Amino acid sequence: CEVLPTTQPGQICLRVDRFEVTLVDLPGAQRFRSAWRSHYSTAHGLLFVLDSSDLARMEEARKALSRILSHPDVSGKPLLLLANKQDVAAALLPCELIERLALERLVNENRSPCRIEPCAAAGPARSTLQGLRWLLRAAAERSSLLPATRSPTADPSPRTARGLCSRPTRDTPDNQDGVGKMGEHRAARRLLPKVRAPPATAGVGWAGGGCRCLLLIPSSPCPGGECKGSWEEEEEGEGEEEGPRAAKPGRGTGQTRRRG
Ligand SMILES: Nc1nc2c(ncn2[C@@H]2O[C@H](COP(=O)(O)OP(=O)(O)OP(=O)(O)O)[C@@H](O)[C@H]2O)c(=O)[nH]1
Ligand SMILES: [Mg+2]
Fold first, then answer.
1. Residue 78 falls inside a structural domain
2. Helix/strand/coil (H/E/C) assignment for every residue in the chain
């Protein structure tokens, strides 16, 4: 990706693949949060940077996320959740964050596809960039599905994308030893069309070899009754069309996703 000249403070312009992206960095402190919503309608996707090591404020983060995603100008837009500070020993893994933040419910209630990437600011940017690529593709996919009559602010050009970057907690300096739990994900593309379906339950997936990136995609209701959930495993790949195979939930090899 290429950093482009910035025209406004608090904004970063990037060229990523075929997209020109403006990232708007919004301060996360409580007193600034009421200003976030003035950016919602122009945003094509959200990037939420979470301090994964701040367990005491996880509930605050959950509420902040819930408020954002349930806003009418945000619901349905894709969310990239960066599980930051994975270098801190106490940091929660993405799969733990899904539980703590009740992300499955949020995804279903608001129809926003969500991807979680573990990262550390001092670590390699690779997983963050992969997450950003997913966010851009998801935003472009969504805009291509929107009716042509949508307002221009809610119906972005497929060649541009605008993201909000915010953080719900005031981070504190912490140990920077090593960078564990970093990850990557390669199978987002084939899951994206599920966004078209009316959601009732969420699909959760992660790439194998440890808890790495996770995807939550609103999925269709179970035909005929209560949903008990099932699991499928897929080979990791760059969006090939191979079919899913039965597997157990867990941190096994391959791309795993739970279906409602
Ligand atoms: N250990 C560790 N510390 C981090 C990481 N990311 C940020 N920090 C530290 O957390 C503190 C806050 O970081 P900022 O980038 O200023 O946080 P912010 O969310 O932008 O703050 P606001 O703009 O006020 O919302 C700084 O001391 C950073 O060095 C990380 O991945 N690991
Ligand atoms: Mg900041």
1. yes
2. CEEECCCCCCEEEEEECCEEEEEEEECCCHHHHHHHHHHHHHCCEEEEEEECCCHHHHHHHHHHHHHHHHCCCCCCCCEEEEEECCCCCCCCCHHHHHHHCCHHHHHHHHCCCEEEEECCCCCCCHHHHHHHHHHHHHHHHHHHHCCCCCCHHHCCCCCEEEEEEECCCCCCCCCCCCCCCCCCCCCHHHHHHHHHCCCCEEEEEECCCCCCCEEEEEECCCCCCCCCCEEEEECCCCCCCCCCEECCCCCCCCEEEEEC
Q: Let me know if residue 96 belongs to a domain.
A: yes
Ligand 1 atom nearest to 84, measured from its CA = 31
Measuring from each residue's beta carbon to the nearest atom of ligand 1, which residues come in under 6 Å? 27-29, 84-85, 87-88, 120-121, 167, 170-171, 173-174, 176
Percent of the chain with pLDDT over 70: 58
ipTM exceeding the 0.95 mark? yes
Q: Does the annotation place 87 within a ligand binding site?
A: yes
Q: Is residue 103 part of a domain?
A: yes
Residue 166 is part of a domain; what is its CATH number?
3.40.50.300
Ligand 1 atom closest to the CA of 49, numbered from 1:
19
Task: Determine if residue 248 is labeled as part of a ligand binding site.
Answer: no
**Structural domains in the chain (count):** 1
Q: What is the extent of the structural domain holding 79? A: 2-182
Atom of ligand 1 nearest to the CA of 174: 1
Q: Is 110 annotated to bind ligand?
A: no
Q: Does 84 belong to an annotated binding site? A: yes
For the segment 52-85, what is each residue's pLDDT rounded down to a tens digit? 999 999 999 999 999 999 999 999 999 999 999 9
217-223 mean pLDDT: 56
Q: How far is the CA of 91 from the centre of ligand 1 (A)?
A: 14
